[in-house]
Amino acid sequence: MISIITATWNAAATLPDNLACIAGQTTPVEHLLIDGASTDGTLEMIKEYCSAPLTPHPSRLTRFISEPDQGIYDAMNKGIALATGEIIGILNADDFYADNTVLAKVARVFEDPAIGACYGDLLYVSQIPDASPLTPDASGFTVKRYWKSGVFAPRKFYWGWMPPHPTFFVRRSVYERFGTFNLALGTAADYEIMLRFLLRHRIKLAYIPEILVKMRVGGASNASVNNRLKANRNDRKAWEVNGLTPAPWTLAMKPLRKLPQWWLRP
After folding, report:
1. Does residue 28 contact residue 1 with C-beta atoms inside 8 Å?
2. Residues ≥6 apart with Cβ < 8 Å to 206
3. Positive or negative: CA dihedral 231, 235, 236, 238
4. Is the dihedral of CA 134, 138, 140, 141 positive or negative?
5. pTM
6. Where do the domains of the chain lie, and which CATH numbers do they carry?
7. How far is it, in rounded angstroms, from Cα 104 to Cα 127?
8. Closest Cα partner for 199 from 147, 163, 248, 229?
9. pLDDT band with cut points at 50, 70 and 90 for residue 220
């Protein structure tokens, strides 16, 4: 069984796509929705969704809680603690799977008991009309950026590499053994946990060379220059707390590696 955690806060506008894509997967899913006490109608929308007839989406939320939290990574940690599936993925309210077979592909990868985690490629999309010459994808979203991850090698972390977190699936036993998200790291909490799992503890990782997730453009760490500088400091701390030393160029390369995402196309 795969457990999917969705962290929400005032997500009424985008959550329906998330719910539909998870309910429509071709493999059984345990879906845990962890809400941070939304006030925009998210809770009412969820209650309506759960009470609707089962057709066309036979699956429903397995667990839903809404309460104040310490941010998105706190919500993720709550979900991990509640998850009962052997494999855990995180798909937040702005994101949706590329098609209804994504989790079936993930499940096949984890048939190898040695695999501790897997990841794939990510597509950034937008529904906002603009003058961009980029071609809308089949779902009607405009393609903005394409994050082609590539095959993992530990040395890549020293050149600013990391897999896209929305495509990162982890065996539950890995969280149990090596811990969950470090809330002190702010927006670098996902970067830190990947350094911890992949570089410090060297769990076995698999790459699925396909677009697994479509993510609406945005992101707190890139919202302003100040946020980017704060993210850079937290990135450095992510190495320090793991007893690792980045190369002199590592943290500068991390945002620079994103530049090709603007012109690459699937």
Report:
1. yes
2. 109, 112, 115, 117, 118, 119
3. positive
4. negative
5. 0.90
6. 1-94 (3.90.550.10), 112-266 (no CATH)
7. 27
8. 163
9. very low
The pLDDT mean for the chain works out to: 88
Q: Has residue 176 got a pLDDT over 90?
A: yes
Helix runs in the chain, H state only: 15-23, 42-51, 72-82, 102-109, 172-178, 189-194, 225-240, 250-256
Give me the residues paired with residue 65 across strands.
34
pLDDT tier, 145 (very low <50, low <70, confident <90, very high otherwise): very high
| Amino acid residing at 226 | N
pLDDT at res. 138: 45
User: Of 204, 180, 22, 48, which Cα lies nearest the Cα of 112?
Assistant: 204
Average pLDDT over residues 78-106: 96
Q: In this structure, how many other beta carbons lie within 10 angstroms of the beta carbon of residue 71?
A: 16
Structure tokens at 186: 């702010």
DSSP string, 98-164: SSTTHHHHHHHHTTSTT--EEEEEEEEEE-S--S--PPB-TTSPEEEEEE------GGGGGGT----
CB 79 within 8 A of CB 32: yes
Instruction: Answer whether 236's CB lies under 8 Å from 246's CB.
Output: yes
Amino acid identity of 112? D
